[in-house]
Amino acid sequence: MRWGDMRESENVEDRTGMPGGGFPLGGGMKLGLGSIIIILIGSLVFGINPLEMLGVISGGPETAPPQQPSPGYGPQTPPAPGAHPAPKSQDAEFSARVLGDTEDVWSAVFKAGGSRYEPPKLVLYRGGVRSACGSTSAAAGPFYCPGDRSLYLDTSFFRELHDRFGAPGDFAQAYVIAHEVGHHVQNLLGTMGQFDTEAQRAGPRGRNDLSVRLELQADCLAGVWGHSASERGLLDPGDVDEGLAAAASVGDDRLQKQQTGRVNPETWTHGSSEQRTTWFRRGFDSGNASQCDTFSGGV
Fold it and tell me: Distance between CA 13 and CA 135 in Å, rounded?
């Protein structure tokens, strides 16, 4: 993928230099319904068991304001006048450029629809991070927090994507970011608010079904961005296969099979490998967000 030709976003906050993510985990806080819904919405995009997620998150509901920086947390101190800023890591630059490209694509889509796209912030961190959705360990994987409209990514996940999930390649990594941006698009369009309302009315199985539909739509929206990148000549041969492999590698059925040796569709929150690749492909082939309606009919 020719990511070096993509515009670099300025909406990136790099916290990777903050030891331990700048916060203690635990603390005995209880999770309310709002926090559980946020876990379903913004977290677990890559198949982490919700029970595992509950063990590493603590904090308030999604409506809580962003936490104020505590000592050793937040933006790094600007360099002194005349000093050279620390060089960016390749992962940080890659993430900023992919984010910048999604900004350009979705800005054009929203403008064509008569509205304005408000880009999210991307927070890069190591080990753990605090957001408006609570304090989160990197074990939860990349996630989007509606409460502060930010994407959170521990870039070491890129290596995990290769080593644990068997999905190498830069387009596979770009898919991770584009999927989270898809959740931001859902938030701007009001889809997440509708999900929140319906999920509170539904039972456990109903909430799981809604969560699957939400995640599959984000996969489709990631495909819409991929279509645009392909049309502009930014993809190399094999990139689409990398994206499809990444989507398949984090299907609930595959992850359950790996973890327990059994598959239980009733507990899925993100969809099967086949579902995830199907919806990513639909977005990629059409390049049209209107083709990403996962809430009408079967998935």
Answer: 17
Query: Are residues 275 and 267 in contact, defined by beta-carbon separation less than 8 angstroms?
Result: no
| Sequence ranges of the domains in the chain | 3-62+88-291
40: left (phi over 0), alpha (psi -120 to 50) or beta: alpha
pTM for the complete prediction?
A: 0.78
For residue 134, give both structure tokens: 């609570």
- Tell me how crowded residue 218 is: count the other CB atoms within 10 A of its CB: 30
How much helix, strand and coil, in percent to the nearest 5, is found in the chain?
50, 10, 40
299 Cβ partners below 8 Å, 6+ apart? 212, 213, 216, 271, 275, 279
Structure tokens at 73: 């947390």
The DSSP bridge pattern shows strands 12-14 and 121-125 to be parallel
DSSP class of residue 102 equals H
| Strand ranges inside the chain, DSSP E | 12-14, 121-125, 128-131, 134-137, 143-145, 150-154
Q: State pLDDT tens for residues 64-103.
A: 333 333 222 233 334 445 544 445 789 999 999 999 999 9
Distances (CA, A) of 37 to 80, 208, 209, 241, 242: 43, 10, 13, 32, 30
Distance of CA 235 to the CA centre of its chain: 21
Name 152's bridge partners. Answer: 123, 143
